[in-house]
Write a structure and sequence with these properties.
Elements (H helix, E strand, L loop, with lengths): L10 E5 L7 E5 L2 E5 L4 E3 L1 E4 L16 H10 L2 H14 L4 E2 L13 E5 L2 H8 L1 E3 L7 E2 L4 H14 L9 E5 L24 H6 L6 H14 L2 H8 L21 H29 L4 E2 L4 E2 L6 H7 L3 E4 L4 E2 L4 E2 L3 H12 L3 E5 L22 H17 L3 E6 L31 H10 L3 H6 L6 E7 L9 E10 L5 E10 L3 E3 L4 E6 L4 E10 L5 E7 L5 E4 L1 E4 L3 E7 L7 H5 L2 E7 L2 E11 L2 E9 L15 E7 L8 E6 L6 E3 L10 E7 L2 E9 L12 E12 L3 E6 L14 E7 L14 E3 L5 E3 L1
Parallel strand pairs: 5-6, 5-17, 6-7, 7-10, 10-11, 12-13, 13-16, 16-17, 18-25, 27-29, 27-38
Antiparallel strand pairs: 1-4, 2-3, 3-4, 8-9, 14-15, 18-19, 19-23, 20-22, 20-24, 21-23, 24-26, 28-29, 29-30, 30-35, 31-32, 31-36, 32-33, 34-35, 36-37, 36-38, 39-40
Helix pairs in contact: 4-8, 9-10, 11-12
């Protein structure tokens, strides 16, 4: 531990008694961390600030470390530069898994116990295989193990003023080794209770299950009715190899009750060991992976702060969550009664040159949307009176080839890339926002009235007058009466009207106002916003970019599918150096997207482990002005098993694909339900891009060619086209006949449609 004196980076707007260590308290209904000097403090950190970040099993080294060795010469110089950058971007602490060399340079830090994960390797209820497992907390050795570890690890840190507190573990598998990620105990996959029951007969974890069931049911008849079994006596529980899946209400309750018993022992033993050897520092929870089982009250009794890792989904146009996170977060706090730390969150973008296939997080088109998501998410967290910290995930990007076979994450999470170059839009957003988080958390922010302007239709043409909706939400404690100006940035445009809208809103009221704009933008980007001279008004922009339009014939009924019919649909070309690499034909019929891809590739090579590294056709879909969710799929040209796969490598339900070899390449024809592609309204336009990976040009090796209407790079979301379905003429819709185009579903025999 360093002897460097603590230098407060807290906020003098909130003060409390100084204890020399970090602690939490509630002031005027808001939770605050109080730093060692007695100033208010919010944990504004980032995870994995490490010189060895992004180690890659396939390469046998960390590309980031290699680049930093060349840039800085040694780790000490890297650490000094890294901490300086983080401080300049408004961060004040180091999150999980930081390098020791970054400590005691001006940033507070956290530390890991991780003894639950470690003990799970020795003796686990859910064994530690590729992830964390769950320790056997019923083992007589567990408490002694934790006490020995606390004496070894925590005692030397007890006087460290820079240490915020201890994370108990990271993402323990509370739902069991085969439980669903968000805990459906009624599923056939076994929860933690069944993991325990499959242990040897004398194991204390298994005996704890049997004791729980005996206490609750007392007789075999009552147990049989609850679990739908046929035991002649409860003694037969001792000889059963496994319990059935908990598919009844009572069995579901039993599975949860067992998890709660495990949690009670886990949190009581670990926190007691830590506080016995380090009474000065906080316990920061165990970094739940998303939503844990109903054990919030238990963790709240034992921890100072409750930490959760979560990746959520935002509507960037409206600046709201589309997955209910705001309500869930309030519920979590209500149940645990303690302040929350969101200890891991991120929004990868698809323009960083990384596959972004593995790992959590809403995929966004470009760094621009990524920076906006950072601001919206961070602002939301610290506007909650019960959130005291946020650790962004993470410092540096993951390697392009993934981390390892068992942990193949390969995404754009970093504040910096593998060359240690900062993502300027993201770090500028952090620099602008992070210093203001204290004002936001205190409720003394000037941004009280939020206004946003968006189109009244999905795909405005800007050919004349267009209807827009001005949405306003009054967060003031008093009524607001005033007006806002409607302005354009970029392009060419003018208002068809007075150029302003009057607003009158009561405290807490939300209102929408219809306005009409006339705009004729040129090429490029156009931003439309509502602004005001009143500093209490905060406007959100709506951004429109001119795009290539692809018209695709659409019919409501299923019709006869032929190659000729497909070739009469909307067509796009993919070119490189003026050479045609592929053609794609699209049609919509009967709620399905029918497609035909003809690809020039004379060295077909399928790599199912890394789809993007072999021959493939990637498809990207997104509703243009609704929630910013991007749906990505891959069509695999495997002669034996062609198919349409989602981002996780799973076959898309209801999709069928057939591959046919052609001179110098191959053709893929098939269809997929529009709703499975993320297209909820078949008659409305959507964004789409196609990327072909091929070994088709001599001397160039594997080549990724995106379509953007005119060729170009896949580095920006603006290269997506607007696909406009139009009603097909009757003569363009062949009648269903007995002879149809044969297609084959992934993994199934050939059939006709």
């Amino acid at each position: 531990m360093s002897t460097m004196a603590y230098q407060s980076r807290g906020w003098a707007g909130v003060t409390a008694s100084a204890t020399g260590f970090f602690r939490v308290t509630q002031i005027d209904g808001r939770w605050w961390v109080i730093d060692p000097a007695g100033n208010g403090f919010l944990i504004i950190g980032t995870d994995h600030v490490s010189y060895q970040a992004g180690w890659c099993e396939a390469l046998g080294h960390s590309p980031y470390q290699r680049n930093c060795e060349a840039k800085y010469g040694n780790e000490d110089k890297w650490a000094a530069a890294t901490v300086s950058r983080l401080l300049s971007w408004g961060f004040n602490s180091l999150g999980a898994a930081d390098a020791q060399t970054t400590r005691y340079r001006g940033l507070a830090h956290t530390a890991f116990a991780a003894w639950g994960t470690e003990f799970a390797r020795i003796d686990g209820i859910a064994p530690r295989t590729w992830w964390t497992g769950v320790p056997n907390v019923f083992s007589p050795a567990f408490a002694a193990f934790c006490d020995e570890k606390a004496a070894e690890v925590c005692a030397p840190m007890r006087d460290d003023p820079w240490l915020i507190g201890w994370f108990l573990d990271n993402e323990l598998e509370w739902y069991g080794s085969y439980g669903k990620a968000f805990g459906d105990f009624s599923s056939p996959e076994r929860p933690l209770l069944r993991d325990a029951f499959r242990k040897p007969p004398a194991d204390p974890a298994r005996q704890a299950v049997i004791a729980q069931l005996r206490r609750k049911y007392g007789t075999a008849d009552r147990f049989n009715r609850a679990w739908r079994t046929g035991l002649r006596g409860l003694d037969e529980l001792e000889t059963l190899n496994d319990l059935p899946a908990p598919n009844t209400k009572d069995a579901h309750a039993d599975a949860l009750a067992y998890v709660r018993e495990v949690a009670e022992r886990y949190f009581s033993v670990l926190t007691a060991a830590i506080r016995r050897h380090d009474p000065n520092h906080m316990v920061l929870g165990c970094r739940f992976a998303g939503k844990p089982p109903e054990i919030w009250d238990i963790v709240g009794r034992y921890c100072d702060i409750v930490s959760v890792n979560c990746y959520r989904f935002l509507d960037l146009t409206l600046g709201v969550f589309i997955d209910g996170f705001d309500a869930e977060l309030a519920e979590w706090h209500s149940k645990c009664g303690r302040p929350l730390l969101i200890s891991e969150w991120s929004f990868p973008a698809l323009d960083a040159g990384l596959p972004c296939r593995n790992g959590g997080g809403q995929r966004l088109p470009t760094q621009k949307e990524r920076a906006l998501a950072f601001r919206l998410f961070q602002e939301f967290l610290f506007s909650r009176p019960y959130v005291v910290g946020s650790d962004y995930f993470m410092w540096a990007d993951e390697p392009k080839l993934g981390i390892s076979r068992s942990f193949p994450e390969d995404s754009n999470y970093g504040l910096v890339d593998v060359n240690d170059d900062a993502y300027l839009l993201l770090t500028q957003a952090a620099m602008n926002l992070n210093p203001r988080l204290y004002a936001i958390h205190s409720g003394n922010t000037e941004e009280k009235l939020f206004v946003s302007l968006r189109p009244a239709v999905t795909n405005p043409s800007f050919a004349g007058n267009e209807s827009f909706v001005l949405m306003a939400s009054n967060g003031l404690k008093e009524a607001f009466a005033g007006s806002v100006r409607l302005e354009f940035r970029g392009g060419k445009g003018r208002l068809a009207g007075p150029g302003q809208a009057a607003l009158r809103l009561a405290p807490g009221e939300e209102r929408s106002v219809n306005v009409v704009l006339r705009c004729r933008p040129g090429a490029g980007e156009l931003a439309i916003r509502a602004v005001s001279d009143d500093p209490g008004v905060y406007g959100l922009e709506w951004v429109w970019e001119s795009r290539q339009e692809l018209r695709v014939p659409c019919s409501r009924t299923t019709c006869r599918v032929t190659l000729r019919w497909l070739r009469q649909g909307g067509c796009l070309d993919l070119r490189s150096c003026k050479s045609q690499v592929a053609r794609a034909f699209l049609r919509v019929a009967g709620g399905r997207l029918h497609f035909l891809f003809e690809v020039r590739d004379d060295q077909i090579r399928v790599n199912r482990a890394l789809l993007w590294d072999g021959s493939s056709v990637e498809l990207f879909f997104k509703s243009p002005y609704a929630a910013s969710l991007l749906h990505q799929f891959t069509v695999v040209p495997d002669p034996k098993d062609a198919g349409l796969l989602d981002l996780g490598g799973r076959p898309v339900a209801g999709a069928e694909v057939r591959m046919r070899r052609q001179p110098h390449g191959y053709a893929l024809d098939g269809f997929a339900p529009l709703d499975r592609l993320g297209i909820a309204h078949p008659g409305e336009p959507w964004y789409m891009d196609v990327v072909v990976t091929a070994n088709c040009l001599a001397g160039e090796g594997r080549l990724r060619i995106p379509w953007s209407g005119q060729g170009g790079s896949h580095e920006s979301f603006r290269h997506y086209a607007v696909v406009v379905p139009y009603k097909a003429r009757a003569e363009d819709v062949p009648r269903v006949a007995s002879r149809t185009l044969a297609v084959r579903a992934a993994g199934s025999a050939e059939k006709t449609t």
